[in-house]
Structure formats: C-alpha cells, structure tokens
Design goal:
By secondary structure, this protein is an alpha+beta fold. Helix content is 22%, strand content 22%. The protein contains seven helices and 14 strands. The protein has helices spanning 34-46, 59-73, 110-116, 119-129, 150-153, 210-220, 292-295, and strands at residues 4-7, 49-51, 85-87, 100-103, 134-144, 158-161, 171-172, 178-184, 195-198, 243-246, 254-258, 263-265, 275-284, 288-289. The strands form three sheets. A seven-stranded antiparallel β-sheet has the order 2-11-8-13-5-4-3. A five-stranded mixed β-sheet has the order 1-10-9-12-6. It has a two-stranded antiparallel sheet with strand order 7-14. It is globular, with a radius of gyration of 18 Å. The chain starts with a strand and ends with a helix.
C-alpha cells in the first residue's frame, strides 16, 4: 500500500458561535460573505475539510489564552469546575513528549467559554452546514510543547481518527449531525505537527462495523507513536490510494472538518515553538441522544 503525502497552501479561516459574549476581547471578525461560506461548504463536501479565509480569534485573545493554558494544566480553574477530561497534569505527568489535552474547558474557564460558545460562531456554523440551529457538543484544548529530545517528542502525535466516533455516534439522526472547528493559537505547520487529512475519506464506505471504527479512533488518539499514528486508517477502505495532506494554519485562523473525515497529526519537531489549538465540536440543534437510557445511568 502506498500513501501520497503532500502539503496544501496555507489559508486562513474565520468564524464560530453559540451563546456567551466576549467582553474584554474581540474574538472574531464580523465580516462574512456568501461566497466564502459557499466555498467552505463545497470544500467540506468534496475534500472533507476546509481552511476558512478570515481570522476567527483575535491576537489579544490568543495571547491571553497562551497565558491561561499553563495555569489550566496546573489545575487552576477560574470557575472552580474541572473539565470533563484532563490529559497531562503539571507536577504529576511526564514533562515532555506527549500531546496535552482537556475537554469541555468552557466549564472551567470563562475566556474559553466566550470563544467556543460565542453566538456569532454558532450562526456561522449554521450557515456553513445549512442547519436550523446549533449546539456545542464539546470543546478540546490541545497543546503540543516544543521538542526537547527525539525520544520525548515521539508521542506528541494524534493518531488518525474520525470525530464521529466521539461525537456523532452518540446522537440521532447520525447523518451530518456534527462538524469540527479547529482554531490555531499558534502558527502550525509540518514542523510543529499540523493536522493531516486523508482527502475524501469522509466518503469512504466503512469496511468494518461502526463499533470497530470507534475502537480504532478511541484507541489511537493518545496511543500512537511518531511511526504509527497513521496506522489506524482502515485498510479495507481506499487506503492503497489514500492521499494524506498536511493543512498548515496561521495563528488565529481555523479549519472546519467533516465528522467522518480521517485525520491526525505528527509530532512537534520544533525545539522552540508550541503548537496549541482550541477546538469546537458543534451539533445540529435538533439532534437527540441515540440511547437516552444509557445516558441516564
């Protein structure tokens, strides 16, 4: 099997939305055009991802987040509420070489909440997805620190996975029920481990059951090394013809990607540069839990 790897042109992105207002920071550009929205929608449908052409996060906001992130991973939560997931803890976990992640930080930090829950972003998502309404499913705060040594850096990867395994499969109807907005808080490129996509993989017909695909995704997000983070791509699909592209994004801009597109990222090889991102997973507003009984247990 052969995989074609290539880099795509750096393009910016631009928008988000749900409910709280950003008072001290101008988080998002207010400009939006039908042409850009259509272009983004078309790219999502064709390739499975799109880089948006306007800035989503202002310089003052991402600089404020740079100061907040170490405090969050040290357990300093402004609201007194823990995030739902917390991978890597200051003073407890291995210092280097792993991808640090928190989920649903909006519960813990008001600045994060003001970004991922912003009404203007929700409206933008609804326009791009042609949804009647939008809800937040979860956020992700991801941090790949600079590389200290080749050995340490080996695990600062994210294994190839589909976001649908974590988000879409929990809701009905399943089809087209979620989308991901990946906001770069630093300039990201191949050196720092930018996102890579299997182009068009959102159209693949699954060779395994949904349960197998979910297992692949869940097992590899934090469990891959630099030599194996692409191994979770289903071999029964079009793997022999898969084209893997790197998608560098400028600081403050964002990627939109389809719930079923396969994606991951390599290690941060830079000795000086951080690779931080804030991710919003958004749901079509009229979905419901796939198994209410399980959710009540």
């Amino acid at each position: 099997d052969s995989i074609t790897t290539m880099a795509i042109e750096v393009l910016p992105l631009r928008r988000l939305a749900l409910s709280t207002r950003c008072k001290s920071h101008q988080c998002f550009s207010s400009s939006s055009t039908n042409a850009i929205i259509e272009q983004t929608t078309d790219s999502l449908q064709e390739q499975g991802f799109s880089v948006y052409a306007h800035r989503l996060v202002s310089e003052s906001t991402y600089r404020s987040l740079h100061k907040r992130i170490p405090k969050l991973f040290a357990g300093e939560f402004e609201t007194g509420v823990y995030p739902d997931e917390w991978h890597w803890r200051e003073g407890i976990s291995k210092q280097n070489g792993v991808t640090r992640e928190m989920c649903n930080v909006w519960k813990s930090d008001r600045l994060v909440a003001s970004i991922v829950l912003q009404e203007s972003l929700g409206k933008l998502v609804a326009q791009i997805m042609d949804w009647p309404s939008v809800r937040i499913a979860q956020d992700d705060l991801i941090w790949k620190p600079p590389c200290v040594s080749t050995i340490d850096n080996n695990n600062s990867v994210v294994g190839f996975h589909q976001d649908s395994a974590y988000i879409s499969s929990q809701f009905e109807p399943y089809e087209n029920n979620s989308v991901t907005v990946w906001m770069a808080l630093d300039d990201t490129d191949e050196e720092t481990g930018c996102i890579q996509y299997a182009v068009g993989s959102h159209k693949w017909k699954e060779g395994e059951s949904n349960e197998d695909v979910e297992t692949l995704s869940s097992a590899t997000f934090h469990g891959s090394g630099a030599e194996s983070y692409q191994d979770s791509l289903p071999s029964s699909n079009n793997m022999s013809n898969a084209t893997i592209v790197s998608a560098p994004v400028s600081q403050g801009y964002a990627l939109f990607h389809h719930q079923n597109v396969w994606h991951g990222s390599g290690p941060n090889l830079s000795a000086t540069r951080h690779r931080r991102a804030l991710v919003g997973h958004y749901l079509r507003g009229d979905v419901h839990f796939a198994d209410p009984g399980e959710c009540q247990k």
